[in-house]
Amino acid sequence: MRPVIWDDDEERVSDVRQAAQPCFQCGVCAASCPVFRVAPEFNPRIAVDEIVQTGTVAVTGREWYCAYCLMCEQRCPMGVALCEILVAIKNLSARDGKVPPSIVEMMDVIRFTGKVSHPSKGTTRRRRELGLPELPEVDAAEVQKLLEVTGAIDRLTRYREAECEPQ
Ligand code: SF4
Ligand code: SF4
After folding, report:
1. Domain boundary among 69, 95, 121
2. Do 10 and 72 belong together in one domain?
3. Is this prediction's pTM over 0.70?
4. Of the candidates 71, 43, 137, 59, which has an alpha carbon nearest to the alpha carbon of residue 96?
5. CA 4 / ligand 1 centre spacing (Å)
């Protein structure tokens, strides 16, 4: 897939570049990344290096592989905010319409229920055994309002329309 290079959104790209700047390419992030182990085409070290070297953000669609587990960021000796960098890349990717269908589905679920998933009975029982508090109820209407004011629903509608367009 041909990457889309973002260099017109100066503020966003400059924030991402600044966050990536301390990287000295040690590779600890890639070595810690559970996704890289099974999908080596996604490499957080290379994603950071491309930004530092070119001053642009290349959106390939692979950024969505990141599971936001935080392992890379916790282990980076330079304190590079890798997860935030990947979220910024995902945001640019979303603007480019590269959101995977599974993420669009997830947005739909959040829109109508206020959460990504319901905790299983096993999870609820385990939480009780550990003495953790009950999970709070979510007000789906409030979540929907947030999605409206941030423009997420508009975007979701556009993704849905694009899915229905003949290829
Ligand atoms: S762990 Fe940090 S310093 Fe090392 S390659 Fe990754 S981002 Fe760069
Ligand atoms: S946050 Fe993303 S890039 Fe970092 S280790 Fe987890 S999956 Fe890999």
Report:
1. 95
2. yes
3. yes
4. 59
5. 24
Res. 2: pLDDT tops 80 = no
Range of the domain at 113: 101-164
Provide the domain count of the chain.
2
Partners of 6 in the β-ladder: 57
Contact 110 CB / ligand 2 (< 6 Å): no
Clarify whether residues 48 and 29 are in a common domain. Answer: yes
Inter-residue contact 76 to 82 (CB < 8 Å): yes
Cα(77) to centroid of ligand 1, in Å?
A: 7
Task: Please name the amino acid found at residue 140.
Answer: A
Residue nearest to atom 4 of ligand 1 (CA): 26
- Ligand 2 centroid to 141 CA: how many Å? 32
Q: How confident is the model at residue 129 (pLDDT cuts 50, 70, 90)?
A: very high
* 8 Å CB contact between 114 and 145: no
Instruction: Identify the residues whose C-beta falls under 6 Å from ligand 1.
Output: 23-29, 45, 48, 76-78, 80, 82
